[in-house]
Each structure stands twice: as C-alpha cells, then as structure tokens.
C-alpha cells in the first residue's frame, strides 16, 4: 500500500486516455481492468499503441474456490491473479510475475466506475531491474545504513561514519531533558533528519536514483529517520515519556489492580484467545525497540497475530473484537509507559509511508489505554472467586448444618452484615469462655478445645482461626473487602492480624493491595507486622507501592523507621524500585522523603532510578540525590578516591597547594604582621617538604627539617621504636610536649616542627603515609609525630591514608606505634572501610591481622563488607568474610551488603556464605525449638500457630544479635590485640580499653 | 513529501451495535486483490483510492466498535475525521434514536464542517421497517446531513453513498488539513452527554 502515484501523469495511462477513449467509456460495462506499469517504468519503456491492449484485462469465468482469478488481455493473452501478484501466462513471450502496487477506482462523467491497477513490471519487453525496497526491510538500522551506503547503486564509503558523527554532534548540542516541550523536541529531531536527508541527496548516486524515481525519497527519508532515532532514542524517549508521566502513573495503577483479569471478563470470544500468548510475546519486544517505525511495526504485527485464523474458527475479526483484546493485552503487558510509547509513535513517526494504517493502530491502542485509565473496567474478582468457591464447598458440605459455615460467615462479612457477625461471634465466645486459658487465647490447646467443642454440635461452625481453602481467615476477608468496622470487631474478638494465607499474605497485605486506607491504618494501629513477606517476598509496603495506593504507603511509612523502608522481594526490588518502575511519582517522593534508600540494587543490579521509565521520575531522583549528596559518604569516598589516583605529582599538589598556614599547637596563634610574614615563609617551606616527601627524597626532608644526618643511620636501623623514642628525643620532655622549652627545642634552625599541619590539617606523617614511604613514616614517628593526628575537615588519621593507598607496611608500622586501629573519620569510617572501598587486600589484611574488627559501623551503619560489596571487590569480600565479617548486617538504609553490589561474583560469594550460615542456624533453631516446646506454651503470649516465617521471627527475639557463630572471630580479635601490640605502654593501654569497652565501641 | 498526490479524507462509520457498519465497510472496501496476511487492519481500516472529475481522492475508512461500553472512547476514533457515516437499522427504532445522539455529539466535538451521511441499512427487510422513511429524511435535512438507504446484504446503495459523500467532501472545503499534525492534541473529553439544548440543532441547518 505504501507506493502511490498520480496515474493521470503516467505516460501509458495518458496514452490510453488520448488514444482509446472508447475503451475507457466501455470499461464500466465490460468490467475492463487496466494494468499500468508504474511511472518510473512507463517513462523508460517504448510501447506501440497496439501493445497497450496487452495491459487491458477482461475477466474470464473463474473458479473462486481456488483463490485464483483468471483474466484475458484484449490481445487474448492469459493472466492469473493470486493475492497481490499477476501471473502472466499463455500468450506472453515469457512467464512473469508482476506485483500490484495499488488499486484505484475511476469514475467517468456518468458516475460509472472501472478499476485500474498500478503494477511494478512491464508485461512485455525487458523486465525492470528496479526493485522497490519495501519499507519493512528498513526495520533493522543496520539495513538502513546498508541502504544508505549501497542503495544508490554505488558504494558510498564513509556515509555511516559521517551520519554518526553528525548525530553525536547533535546529541552533544541539544539537550533533551525534563521540561522541554514536545514541539521543541519534534522540531529539533525533524531538523536533523531534514539536514541528513539533504546531505544524502548531495551524493550523486543517491541524487540520480531520486531523479529516476521520485518515490525514492520516501524510502530514503525513512532510512534516515530510523538511523537517527536509533542513535538518539536513549536520550529522547524517557523525556517524551516524562511529558505524560502522570497519565502513565494513573494507567499503571489501574492495570496493576486489574492484573488478574481474564478474557471472559471482557467478553472476548474464546477463538480469539488462541493467539493471545503469541501476541503478548510480540508486544513484549516493544520496550527494547528504538525507532517509532519499529514500534509501530511491532504493534502492527501484534494486531496481525491476534487475528490469525485459529484451529477452532476462522471467523474474521472486526472492530468490535480488537478493542477488548487490546485492553487485555495492555493489562498483561509489562510495559510501564504506554502513554509515552503512544506519544512517541504518534508524534515522532515522520515518514508518510503507511501513515494512515499506523494511525489506526495507534488510535486503537490509545482507545484501549484511555478506556482503562478512565476506570470503566471494574471486575469484582473476589466476588467471583467467593461465589465459585461456595458452589464447590456446598457439594461437600451438603449434609452438615451450614448456618455457621465458614463460607456463610465470609458471605456475612462480604455483605457487611454487622449485627449478624456480632451475634455469631458472641455465641461463639460465650459458650466456651470458661474452658479457655483466656478469652482471647489462641494457643493450640484452646484452639483444639474450641474446635472439638464445636464438632460435637456443628462441624461447620467457625472460629476466628478458621480459614477457607486458600488459608484466608475472617480478618483476611474483611481486609480484602475493606470493611474496617467488621475488622475492628474481629480484632476485638481476638482475631490475629499476623496470620498468613497460602500465598503468605497477611490481612495487611490485602488491605494494602486493595488500597483500603482505613483498614490499613486500623491493622497497623493494632500491631499488624509491617514487615511480613508473602511468598513472592513482598511486604505490605511493596504491594501498596505496586498497586499505587499512596495513602496506604503513607500510613505504612508513618509507622516505620527509615531503616525498615528497604525490604526486598524475590526480585530484589525494594518498594522504591517498584514505585519508580510504574511511575508513581507521589509514592517515589514519599518513600525518598521518608528515608528509603536510592542506592539499593535489585537482582538486575538496578538502583531505583534505573527502573524509572521516564524523565519525570528520574528528575525526582536526581533532585533528591543532589539535595542529600553532601550527607552521603559513599559518594564522597568514590569521588575522593578517583581524584586521588591521579599521577603522583598532581596528587601531591592537590594536597599541598591550598596551603594557608597554621600550627596544630597554639604557640603562634597571636598573629602580628611579622607573624603573618613568618607564616607565609613556613607555608612555603612546608610545601617544599611535602613535595620532597611525595617524591621520596628523604635526605632533602631531613635537611629541611633540620635533622642531623647522624640521626638517620641510627633511626632507620634500630628495631624498636620505643628505644628510638628515648634516644632521639632527649632534649624534649615528651615527644608531643608543647611547653615553651620543647617547642623551642623542636623549632631549631628552620621554623618547621614535626607537629605542624597544613591548613587542612595534613601533617608530614599524613603525607608520608599517603605515599607509603615506610622509612620517612618511621622517621617522623621517631621524631615524635602524633600517629593519631587528624585532618581538620575529614578527620583522617595517617592510618586512614595508609590503608586507603594500600601501604600495608606503613599500616603495620602505625599500628605498632599506637595508631587507633578503629579511628573513625568524619563519616565514621575506619581505616578498614577505606581498604574495603578501594579493594586493597594487603592493607586490609595488615589491619585485620593486627586486630581490626571487620564489623565496625560508619555513621550510616555500613560495615567494611558493605563497601567492598558495593565496589565489587571480590577478594576483599572473601577476605572480610574469612575474618568474621557479618554477612547480613543492615546499614542505615536497612540494606545488606548483598543488596548494594553490582557484581555477580560478589553475590555468589555472599549467597554461598549466607547459605552456609543458614544451615548452621537452622540446626541451632531446631535445638531452640525443642527447648521452647518443653517450656510452658500457654504462658507464651505471642505463640503463633502456623507460618514458618513467623516462627522464625519469634526465634529472632529469643536469640540476641549477632548470632553465636559470629562471635568466634570477634573473640579472636579481642584476645589477639594485646598479644601483638603490647610492645609499648601506650598500646597496652589501648588494648585494655578495648577489653573493657568491647569491640563495638569506638575509641574516639 | 514533495507533492501531495491526492486529497485525503478520513471517514468513520458510527452507529449502534449490529446495525451493519462492518458489513457496509467490508462491502465497499471489498478488494479482490488483497493479500491474506494483512487481515486485521483490513478488518477495521482500509484506504480506498478514487479518481472522480479529474481529482484523486484517498478515503481512509475506519470501522468502529459498537459496544456501548466503548462509547466513551469514540472521540479517539472520530477525531480528525472529515466525514462520518451514521448507520441505523430500519427495523430498529432504537438504532435511529442512537443516530440522533451521535449527531449531537459529533456536531459538538467536530463542528459543522464535518460531512454527515445518515444511512438506513437492511432495506432488504423493508417489511419489518420500524423507522419512518419520511421522518428519517426530514431529520437528516434538519441537521445538515444527507440521508441514504442501503442494503449491505444485497450490495445496494453503498457505492452511491460513498460516491456522494466523496463529492461533498471535495466541495465542502477542498483539501483536508487533517494531516497537519499537532503534537499537543487535546485529550478527548470523555463525558459526553446527550443533553444539548434543542436549538443547537437548528444552528446546523
Ligand atoms: N438482512 C440484512 N442483514 C444485514 C445487513 N447488513 C448487516 N446485516 C446483518 O446484521 C448483523 C450485524 O452486522 P454487522 O455488520 O456486524 O453490524 P455492526 O455491529 O454495526 O458492525 C450481521 O448478522 C449481518 O449479517 C443487511 O443489509 N441486511
Ligand atoms: Mg462491527
């Protein structure tokens, strides 16, 4: 259908009109059919007037069942029509197939009509070599490039590179971002397409082709268009979606809530369902397609598949059938940005080829989407399920009295028959009150008691713990229906909000899924656990986020501390992932503001922002992250380490350049003009020393510090730093002494002292440790440098820097000389955190072997394992685990290390380690279980009857964190510290502090 | 495109379910040279190329779903239409009332430029007629539409109906401009009620 031309300008048709007017006049009565070769061919071939009669067909009596219609030309040659092809048969010099390009009806002055076919081949003479490229062949962008390169019949080298260069320039210059109007984007895109088409036409091969056949430009344009969209799609599409994010959010809410709908609910004829799964698969490709043409084609294919004849019937499909099928497809598709896709297809498909056909496709999809969003489709699945179930159970219970059967009771709840429910509950309670441990008791004994008591009279009688075939109790049903008054009643009569059905759903799950806000608030208020997971790992918060119920999310979030906002389900998704994916902007904002983590990674290693389908949601994340960036240490650490790994010369200058000057002691605090001048000089000198340290020029350092060369020999070679201390610092009361005498002593010759620090608090020792210069570090320590001195802003000790740059020898040296092994910087990070972040196993081992605990928290409760996992350092992860790191430690965002990693290897390691632990703890749990059952059950208030999850929960309260086996490495570290470090007095003190304060307390 | 090859008009078929819209649609666009694989779209959307009085015309004909529950989304189908064919069943008086509602809605949403044809289908069942011919023709005159009778079953009157519609489309305003794209097209309003005051009808004559 895509080829079109004005036949009145076709030379063959013009000849027909001028030379054979009678033929045309007779045509309506004799059913003549005129075949006209398309213009490009008609121009070329040389036809005698007589030959024109070869192109006029007269129908013969044909056998319609074969699908072949036979014609005869006015020159008595035979032509058969099969589908859209004309087969030239007897009489023609050669058998040939000509394709029908289009069909047109002509009306003469008397309003009588005859048909004209435009064909792609001449019937006689040389067959044309011109093949019309079908637009479908341009679906693949590689084909488009190929077409542009060789389509002109001549190889145009480099056109692909040229186009890509143009496009990368274009992308560089034009900003597609949230807030840009559709018109603006459209103008930008069509401008670049026009420009590229123009450039293509400048190539003579392409230009010649265009001059031969004007319709060539449509194909050319389509090829260029496809190539352009293919390159710019990643930048463009989400912004286009961003413009309709509100509509998409609304639609997703509707479709999520209709997820259980079936074909019969939409009155779809069963024969049309046959092709449904295949159509669904076709439609699923949509998300990965990049050009409007590909997307339109995908829609079109989906339509085709839906309407293919099925084994059961080949009743043709019509407009009445298409819409419900589309509605069902959209509900069951996982596409989260339908409006975005529609807008993209509708506005950005610029080619005129088949436009009308695609318009119809788009309108149909749009109609289906609009139908859904307007909320006209409401199907009470629950009602239906209940009804079907009733039918089933009635068969089995026919003989028993059903006045109080579970189904009848549920029906009462469904009907909101408040007084009758109360009656039932009253009668239930009063009759057995005395025999129970407690009126509300649901312990095993009381329950069996209740059950047996009832069975004497009435098998079908309900208790508050009875459940239906799906394991749902009365409270579940009431929550599903959203009847909060009944729920309150049930709760008052002792119904347990904790019970889970066979899908693992608690009443709170149901209330949240259905969006019953009052029910949700009631349940939360009555202590329903908010962290229960159903069989897919979803918590109520997941469901409220999935089904788009912001009020429920609010209710849940209000009750939960921030660390509880990041539970993850089977797919590793947190509620924030889900809300982002389905475009619920309000929920995303709500979760973020309540402290949900934007860093959690799901099993596809996406953070929530990656799940966002449109730029509107992405912008919400960007803004939030930007606002909170300052507080975020991980990001800082990443930036920091990136900056620090520049070549060494630059590195030193970043450290030494912003150097205003100040001493760490108070001696020069009073500033006079002289002082300022002096400070300036000192600053300069200090910079020189820093440079010398960074380039490892030890002698220069000594010289500038004014230390005798003789010092060098003795200091470097002597083993014990303690002895050195004594021997070299004779004249000073104490290495760190700041009395006037000592300062003067230290300050001899140059103005530099070992305790001096730069404006940012960097001391010489910091610098030596940063560069891993062992001998200089040792020298500075001997000269009395404070090993625990800190930089001002970040509070880094030399040990932090040594660990961060993986200087294991220096690490050991520092620890041996009394460095605080758990020193925390401004973000609460210990040196081990830095080793872990950077994956430096050497320094980490050095720290761990010297007694560092792997389970120190930073201010966001990350332990080093979090950092190692986050940056994907497998060896480091293994190393930390070997040294007793907790594997399931939650950080402030309630994320475990496994949740923030992007590396498969790390996941495997962590999982296998977790499993190993689970086996151990399972053994232990069973032990505790058996202990528990021996103790008095009735006294345990929270005894929970069935679910394995709740049993686990229960145990958790019995066992203190951390689990027993984790204590082993701890105890090791506690006892090894004094042994290893008892060499100095200071260290011994440190070690004893350790022993008394315990491993988790920070020393600072 | 460098040049426009034809006048293009979009025409929708509207009317209650089962009055014969699909039958009329298929009859008119029936095409001996169709390819098997393009079934669906052909089932509800086809383009017909015509040349009359020296003018080339492409009619894009859209069949629509008749179910009542989909009424609210009809604007998506008829937006940008230059012509509308409102079908009723001459044996069903209700279906004719439905046509009146459609007329009001279309006049309100698409203005008076829309070329209307009101079609009484199933003339082969003349004996069961429940819509007075005279009434129908008069009503069509009042609202600026043209009335036709046809039978999809016998293939009577259909060609004439489309030919006349095409003529009126050409003369109504020459070239259509519905191909002009507007990216921010208004959302179709979804609450269409048929409570337009009666005087509105006169304004359309
Ligand atoms: N007798 C008769 N029946 C017709 C005619 N047109 C359609 N029908 C029948 O009316 C029914 C509904 O037709 P259909 O085209 O599906 O109507 P739609 O719902 O408006 O699309 C079908 O059973 C057709 O066979 C007609 O002109 N005469
Ligand atoms: Mg129909």
Automatic annotation (TrEMBL), chain A:
Record-linked PROSITE patterns: ANK_REP_REGION, ANK_REPEAT, VPS9
Entry keyword annotation includes Electron transport: no
GO biological process terms on file: early endosome to late endosome transport
ANK repeat coordinates: 470-502, 503-535, 536-557, 571-603, 760-792, 794-826, 827-859, 860-892
Coiled coil: none
Matches recorded under InterPro entries: Ankyrin_rpt, Ankyrin_rpt-contain_sf, UPF0507/Ank_repeat_27, VPS9, VPS9_dom_sf
Gene Ontology cellular-component terms listed: early endosome; late endosome; plasma membrane; transport vesicle; tubular endosome
Keywords: ANK repeat
Pfam families referenced in this protein's UniProt entry, alphabetically: Ank, Ank_2, Ank_4, VPS9
Ranges for domain VPS9: 245-381
Annotated GO MF terms: guanyl-nucleotide exchange factor activity; SNARE binding
Entries under PANTHER family matching the protein: ANKYRIN REPEAT DOMAIN-CONTAINING PROTEIN 27
Record protein name field: Ankyrin repeat domain-containing protein 27-like
Native source species: Oopsacas minuta
From TrEMBL, chain B:
Single Gene Ontology MF annotation: GTPase activity
The keyword rRNA-binding is assigned to this record: no
Membrane topology: Lipid-anchor
InterPro entries on file: P-loop_NTPase, Rab21, Small_GTP-bd, Small_GTPase
Any Gene Ontology CC annotation: endomembrane system
Main subcellular localisation: membrane
Sorted UniProt keywords: GTP-binding, Lipoprotein, Membrane, Nucleotide-binding, Prenylation, Protein transport, Transport
Region (Disordered): 174-205
Skewed-composition ranges (Polar residues): 174-184
Location within or outside the cell: Endomembrane system
One Pfam assignment: Ras
GO biological process, one term: protein transport
Entry's family note: Belongs to the small GTPase superfamily. Rab family.
Name of the protein in its database record: Ras-related protein Rab-21
Organism the protein comes from: Oopsacas minuta
Higher taxonomy: Eukaryota, Metazoa, Porifera, Hexactinellida, Hexasterophora
